[in-house]
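Quick one:
INPUT:
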């Protein structure tokens, strides 16, 4: 199936789900409207979750951790609409398209919610749910899912021949310098479980989802804060590279419970929006 046809089918199916849930819950229960004044937990969020595009990572203080836990508990009944597609507690589903939310870096989740609401990512049912929610409320949603510590299911059996999987492994672990394709591990961590506060893990995701996101970056349907490093990298990948990378990643077990690293272990290979304070190989530090 062509990527555009696959994406259209997924969008339409998701829209039908969201509309049914909205009618059943009136959206007042699933996504209770944020109050005009920040709650006590919201006021504590600057310590737990960056209020702007995340700049640095670090361990949470005890008050910040308590605030994040409070937010997560209070948000649970308000994010029922999310679990319709993303599975109970954001664990994802076996249907092959919707990604896991539980345990992902809070800054990454917050960035993606902002991207959906503001049109940098195009997925109609997400925009429908988020269009009237404030920045603070989206960050509370991100805090809720980031605080969930849930086991990953075993990976499915590999869905590609050994030669394809090896090609995917080479690109993930070593990249292709001749085509200016960095290794995935250079940004997403040596275990590919992500880096706090804003770099996601790549394991435990459905192959179809990985394929579709790389395709969306290639075609401009998915964008991020400038400089959009993933868009530039995706455009260097041939279709067979995308298939190989997604097949290999989807077949790997998730180590260490999928927990992201507290900080990057080395410089980024390229500068990326949203994490532009991180050092980059051969580049001067950004001026503040």
């Amino acid at each position: 199936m062509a990527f555009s046809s696959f994406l259209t089918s997924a969008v339409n199916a998701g829209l039908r789900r969201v509309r049914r849930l909205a009618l059943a819950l009136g959206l007042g229960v699933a996504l209770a409207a944020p109050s005009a004044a920040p709650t006590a937990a919201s006021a504590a969020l600057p310590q737990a979750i960056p209020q702007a595009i995340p700049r640095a990572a670090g361990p949470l203080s005890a008050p910040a951790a308590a605030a994040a836990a409070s937010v997560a508990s209070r948000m649970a009944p308000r994010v029922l609409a999310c679990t319709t597609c993303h599975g109970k507690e954001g664990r994802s589903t076996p249907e092959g398209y919707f990604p896991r939310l539980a345990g992902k870096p809070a800054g990454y989740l917050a960035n993606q919610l902002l991207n959906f609401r503001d049109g940098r990512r195009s997925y109609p049912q997400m925009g429908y749910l988020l269009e009237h929610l404030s920045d603070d409320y989206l960050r509370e949603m991100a805090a809720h899912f980031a605080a969930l510590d849930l086991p990953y299911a075993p990976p499915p059996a590999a869905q590609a021949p050994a030669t394809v999987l090896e090609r995917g492994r080479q690109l993930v672990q070593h990249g292709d310098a001749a085509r200016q394709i960095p290794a995935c591990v250079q940004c997403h961590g040596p275990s590919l479980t992500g880096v706090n506060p804003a770099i996601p893990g790549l394991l435990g995701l459905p192959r179809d989802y990985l394929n579709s996101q790389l395709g969306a970056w290639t075609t401009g349907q998915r964008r991020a804060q400038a400089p959009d490093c993933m868009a530039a990298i995706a455009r260097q990948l041939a279709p067979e590279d995308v298939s190989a990378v997604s097949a290999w990643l989807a077949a790997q077990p998730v180590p260490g419970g999928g927990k992201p690293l507290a900080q990057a272990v080395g410089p980024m290979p390229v500068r990326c929006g949203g994490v532009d304070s991180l050092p980059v190989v051969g580049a001067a530090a950004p001026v503040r």
